[in-house]
Amino acid sequence: MTIAHILGFPRIGAQRELKWALESYWRGKSEREGLLETARALRERHWRLQQAAGLDQVPVGDFSLYDQVLDHSALFGTVPPRFAHPQGAEVDLDTYFRMARGRAPTGKPAAACELTKWFDTNYHYLVPEFHRDQSFALSSQTLFAQVEEAKALGLNPRPVLIGPLTYLWLGKTKGKPFDRLELLDDLLAVYAEVLKRLRAQGVEWVQMDEPILVLDLPNDWRRAFELAYPQLAGDRPRLLLTTYFGELADNLQLACHLPVEGLHIDAVRAPQQLERVADWLGGHKVLSAGIIDGRNLWRTDLESLLDRLEPLYDRLGKRLWLGSSCSLLHVPVDLAPESDLDPELRSWLAFAVQKLSELNILKRALTEGRSAVAEALGSSRTTVATRRNSARTRRAEIRAAMSAVTESMSRRQSPYSQRAALQQAALGLPLLPTTTIGSFPQTPEIRAARHALKTGALSSEAYQGQMRAKIKEVVERQEALGLDVLVHGEPERSDMVEYFAELLEGFAVTRNGWVQSYGSRCVKPPILFGDVARRGSMTVDWITYAQSLTQRPMKGMLTGPVTMLQWSFVRDDQPRSATCLQLALALRDEVLELERAGIRVIQIDEPAFREGLPLRRADWDGYLDWAVRCFRIASSGVEDQTQIHTHMCYSEFNDILPAIAALDADVITIETARSNMELLDGFAEFNYPNAIGPGVYDIHSPNVPEVEQMVELLKKAAERIPPERLWVNPDCGLKTRQWPEVEPALRNLVTAAQRLRAAL
Ligand code: GLN
Ligand code: ZN
Fold it and tell me: What are phi and psi of 62, to 5 degrees?
């Protein structure tokens, strides 16, 4: 029979139960058993939801206490030496957490493994560390135990494994450099053992995730696929090789020819590959079509999808499976409790739970005929039509503004060198000016006030008053510290994206639409459903109030168009570039209003600029083109005297430096404290023309940086970038830090700048 299934379910829980259980365990407030019971109950609930929705298999191993890649490192015994784990022994819970966070209720603290982004999502995984004489050994029973758990509930478990090539690809070598592929044979032996065990447990199918098949793969990695999979033949369950997040493209034939029993493809991101894969797939293999979007939350247009699927079903029959495009990890759990959403908008949405029933409807329509699900199809049809025709997604004035965009709107009046002179004359800043990235500690007091405002316990006036008091306090602190360009501290912002989403037309925010970012950390991306329009000023009152308290320049603080786009669930009825342009136009108006109100320095944050890069190189230019243009449209309306800053908090720039330069921000502040300024080599070689503030204070650490340390970093920076174009600042915003660390750290930062100024 045609199988309907998902590649994975969000594990955090509709009420973030896992988050609370984890944090309480980490704080030593609850026992291991309590945490494990919460986890077990979540797995059961999520499997039962899939069963109730009529899905035929349940993924097992998609659940994780922290991260699925870390689970594999535990499974294979890839534990870095600093955790002093005896080779081959079971990786216990606290070793696991120490790898994730550096510390756990028991065991010696050690540096946590590195976190990095999972493909082009906002999910972060823990990077496996491989050393030269690495060996692997089966070191966790968790997966097998969960298979038993599912069986005991009467379900058909399909264990999820990250495939051997993807696992190696995601890792990093440590110590003497070597080729990770040298580890493949040893690793395959453990995979074979795992598969054999699963077979013995009666498992029919295993999901083998190899998402790197949608990337530009070097030839030796492609060859490694051909060598590896035959080695997994023998006594094992059937394998469903799963790919997602993009098109197989040049890896299509490779993927189709591997000796596995089924292939899953992403038919949402890359619908065009559906028929081609069907053509290339051998006559006995299963084709699992990932047709329900695991990356976004719009209801599916079921009827047009069926138009596509029916001919395929006629050809393949039960060899056609229906699945989610990728794991549902990347969407929130359940729409049902979102009663605050506008009913019409709500009718357009499907969160994870709702996606399960979409799969079921599609399966029934294929196997029993459309008439069997006529009602559901009718409702889908209505939804599609109301969304397409809705007045709330299109605004004439916004469409007009988009077509009125001219070339000159994305150009500053004069080139940087002229602007810099005018800005210097207007601002009168010292050499190596000091500033911060925007936010100051979000104290419990601030959060309590915002909570009280939401529940109605605090009036809007009282809230404004409290936030103003906070602003006054941070302005005074910054003046006392001697910083040159001040910020208002962002106390009024819950989140840099949500704050603006709440004020702009075209966005909705959910109450509980949480998505796991890493470990127990979740984000709540807003929903960008319609044309974006600015109702009125969003930041001007706060910033002008802050400016009124000081003679020094106050930096206006905005979230850039690309980051607003990247960190939201975005409408899929027009290109992302068009949506980004709308955001840019709205922000442009805000920038101009700030300027009119006398603000002379304006920062437009773009921390998500790089993560928007497509997975395939061939698509980079297209993206960079419109992303740069949107930033420029947002920032270029101002006079030459007004100084535009941008901020990005990561350190890989070398491959996109031309685009970074093309943003033409007067000042860019970036993260560098941990990379010892080496990252500036790229900027220097490229002759990056504008000013740079390389972070000299690693805000991710509670340590207070010493003056000497920062002076050294600045000296290194000054060897690469002329001092007239250097700024002095931390790596990123300070909202997660506490005043007792922030105050001395900034005092040292100012002193470091002063020392170097005197020396130059
Ligand atoms: N202005 C923001 C802050 O300081 C920037 C945050 C970020 O880069 N992620 O918090
Ligand atoms: Zn940052």
Answer: -75, -25
